[in-house]
Amino acid sequence: MKEVYITKISKFLPNRPISNDEMEDKLGIIDGKSSKGRRIVLRNNKITTRYYAIDDNGNITHNNAQLTKEAVEKLYDDNLKPNEIELLSCGTSSPDQILPSHAAMVHGFLKNGNTEINSPSGACCSGMNALKYGFLAVKSGQTENAVCTGSERTSSWMKSDTFEDELKHLNTLEDNPILAFNKDFLRWMLSDGAGAFLLENKPNGELPLKIEWMEGYSYAHELDACMYAGADKLESGFLKPWSEYPSDEWSKKSLFAMKQDVKLLGENILVKGVDSLKMAIQKHGLKPEDITYYLPHISSYYFKDKLYEEMVKQDVEIPWENWFMNLSNVGNVGAASIYIMVEELAASGKLKKGDKILLSVPESARFAYAYALLTVC
């Protein structure tokens, strides 16, 4: 088995940072009324700027595959030519279409010659699953290199026109229709962007990161869906897919919008997160004090203190000074967040040989968690 190293990292954040006060200008006002939930959500998540693939005139500038293509091309240098990529593995929770796959569309934009592609589906963990596929391919000797990506382009899913037909329909049914909070909530949480890693079987580059191990856990056998799109959640918890509704119901119910069961999220995301963290580090004999940098992908700073408290409760406390996050200035970029965090940490000049970096990524879709341990070489 080969050793696997992250030898180059890149990110692509579209256009300029968008402040909280500009969000409704970009995404649009629903039913002519400013969102009542916006200030509450933003106060809790403490995100101050994020990025949208929308220009100042309201035009869409990039789709998801194009964002990913931009990040991948930033990996090119004298040591990596476009046609030398042996495997392209791309994760996202917001693909541009149902078919073809996301990685196929990225490959189409790259036009870099024949290569193997892989498109793990899912939410935030899809970026880590893309990384694990590349990690295992290089480790097994199947390939000598792999480019792995995480990306999101959710802004277009959150624009006001996505919900207009639903509000018109509700207007015929009740006097004071409002967009359900489980749909409005995510409009103020999500951001666009892409990140990419180059994996190789040799420690090339200035400060390569060796991938020691990767682990994943799912709690779908215990818990209902929490974040979903392309379906409606029934009272029983069952997800009824868009394909079982008549087409005129798709827009009336905003079936393709992302939705979040906030109550289910709050009850489970941290407890199961720390439970899975304990399993991962115990399996590999890692102690919390061995971790130099802890990079948790969290959707909101609302969860930060509560995550720490749950760690203390379950006896896996990682000290605050070891935490590294950038949520407040780049926003929640879903599957891309962990890539963008690692890129920022690597570019900070803080890393030194021997440092241990623990990556921690949850997804609330049906509660799954992914972990990786990196060592600075």
TrEMBL record:
SUPFAM superfamilies: Thiolase-like (SSF53901). The gene is darB. One of its GO terms (molecular function) is acyltransferase activity. GO terms for biological process: secondary metabolite biosynthetic process. Pfam families: ACP_syn_III_C (PF08541), ketoacyl-synt (PF00109). The keyword Acyltransferase applies. This is StlD/DarB family beta-ketosynthase. It comes from Bizionia arctica. Keywords: Acyltransferase, Transferase.
